[in-house]
Specification:
Arc Repressor Mutant, subunit A, 7% strand, two-stranded antiparallel sheet, globular
Length: 138
Amino acid sequence: MEKIKKRSDCPVSCSLDVFGDKWSLIIIRDLMFYNKSTYNDFLKSEEGIATNILASRLKVLEENGVIEKLAHPDSKAKVLYRLTQKGVDLLPIIIEIYIWSEKYFPTSPELKAKIKEVKKDKDKFIKQMNEDLKSNWI
């Protein structure tokens, strides 16, 4: 694993060194909530990530143990990406970002309804999502 040069020992700073760019949390979001798992899946996200940036971000996330690569069952030319436990542990942070964003930015009615449901029992939602994400490991 390529060692990331830390700017400081601050936990926020160290975390941002791993996933604080413009794209990493989008990739993590896609893995968590949109069942995306291949390079082409990520390219199809509405945010429009460039291929060179995607390759770079996937590499950094993998090198830092947030995601892992697996052989694709149907194609030797493709790989599957999935969250590791370290990546799954970002779920509460992603949930809080959704809640914060819904408060300050326009949100689709569907997403607003989902966030409202999540807020009713965040712990239950996070527990269920953890189980769902881990079931992909089998």
